[in-house]
Design a protein that fits this description.
Layout (H helix, E strand, L loop, with lengths): L1 E8 L6 E6 L3 H9 L12 E9 L2 H11 L2 H14 L1
Antiparallel strand pairs: 1-2, 1-3
Length: about 80
């Protein structure tokens, strides 16, 4: 199963990260918080605020691309606002 997820930085409250993994979502979150991802290590610790599961790799990749787009950025802001 593929997981598309959104993290928010506890260091910088406006900073979010969108990722895609086939690993267990909690294992991947731990990797981010352990500094094993070069894109997220400077803003750790991270907290998982949203995720979606997919059986289809292509569908998961398209959803990740959407969440990284302009409309997806607005969607992330709505999620972050409702999370707070």
């Amino acid at each position: 199963m593929y997981h598309v997820y959104i993290l928010t930085s506890l260091k910088k409250s406006t900073k979010t990260y969108v990722g895609l993994t086939i690993k267990d979502i909690n294992v991947r979150l731990k990797e981010h918080n352990d500094g094993l991802s070069r894109y997220t290590k400077s803003d750790k610790p991270w907290e998982l605020i949203y995720f979606e599961n997919f059986y289809c790799q292509l569908c998961a990749e398209k959803r990740e691309q959407f969440l990284k787009s302009g409309f997806g950025y607005r969607f992330r802001k709505i999620i972050l606002k409702s999370y707070s």
